[in-house]
Each structure stands twice: as structure tokens, then as C-alpha cells.
Amino acid sequence: MNREIFLHVGLKGLRQSGMLLLLAVVVALIGNQVRPQGLALVDEEWSLEAHIKAPDGSGMTVTLDEAKEFFFSGSAVFIDARSEDLYRFGHILGARGVPWEQVESTIDEATGDLAPDTLLITYCDGEGCGLSWELALELINRGFMNVRVLVNGWSLWKEADLPVEAGPPVPGS
């Protein structure tokens, strides 16, 4: 019986401590928000682009103008990280499809003929789409040393009326 009372009192105290901690955090957050010079909760410069670097130390993003230059000079291979259905609906002309959800079963076939120093540009659709970043990191982990990301690539490419095509992925195309 004494043990049950002790356990009940202990749990009650733990619950009260948790509630006090939660209340303190909420009050602190509200106080920070109303302060004229409140502290930033997240670094204003935080983004994947700012914190992920290519193996050579350079930034991993390319601009649309840079991507166009690489495309028209034939000096890069574009890799679409979107789903197979979206790839079939339309993709950058000549891009290889490596849907992130099927990366393990498609990446070797799509990149098997490429040298480790080949310039690879991954893309997906939407500024918040992280699939191109995930794919870029996977390519680097597999030994590709010249990987870049075209952020919001598909939308930017279409809006600029650059060459596109539709159809199923062609391995190693």
C-alpha cells in the first residue's frame, strides 16, 4: 500500500514538473516574440543551400542561367528526382529519371555509364522540394564528385520555355 501511495505521489510530481516546464517554455517564447529585439529561434541564413557543400567546398546550387549553359553545351547530365509519373508527364530534354522513392532500384542503371567527375544536375519541382537535395547527396555518397542542384528546376525550366520532353525513362540515356 505504501508503495502505491509513493508511486502515485511520484507520478503526480513528475506530471506537475512537466506542466511547469511546458508553461515556462511557452512564456519564454511569447516573451521573446513581443520583445522589440527578440532572439532569432532559427538562424535567418538557414537553408539546405547554405549548409550543404559540394565535395570541393563550393556551393551545390546552380542558377537557371548556369543550367542553361551546361545544357546547351552538353557538359552536364540532368537527373530528375521526381516520381516516375511526373517524369513521364514531362522532364528536361534528355534528363535521366531517378525517382527518389525508387532510388535504390534505379540509380545504378541511370548513372552506370557516367564517370565520377561528370557534372550532374539534379532537380525536382517547387522551392520546398527536397528530393533533388536528397538525390544529390546520394550521388555524392556513391562517388560522384561534381553534383549540383537546380532548385525549383522543373518549374523554372518550363517557365523559361526551355527544351522538354515526355515519356518513360530511358536507362542511361
Summarize the structure.
The protein is α/β, with parallel strands linked by helices and 173 residues long. The chain contains seven helices and six strands; from the N terminus they run H-H-H-E-H-E-E-H-E-H-E-H-E.
How far apart are the first and last residues' alpha carbons, in Å?
A: 75 Å
Beta-strand residue percentage? 5-15%
Strand order of the largest sheet: 3-1-4-5
- Secondary structure class reads alpha/beta
How many helical stretches?
7
Main sheet summary: 4 strands, parallel
Order of helical and strand elements = HHHEHEEHEHEHE
Query: What is the tally of beta strands?
Result: 6
- Count of structural domains: 2
CATH class of the largest domain: Alpha Beta
Helical content (DSSP H or I, runs of 4+):
40-55%
Overall shape: elongated
Mean pLDDT: 83
- What are the segments in which pLDDT stays under 50 over at least 5 consecutive residues? 44-51
CATH superfamily of the largest domain: Rhodanese-like domain
CATH fold category name of the largest domain: Oxidized Rhodanese, domain 1
Radius of gyration: 24 Å
CATH architecture of the largest domain: 3-Layer(aba) Sandwich
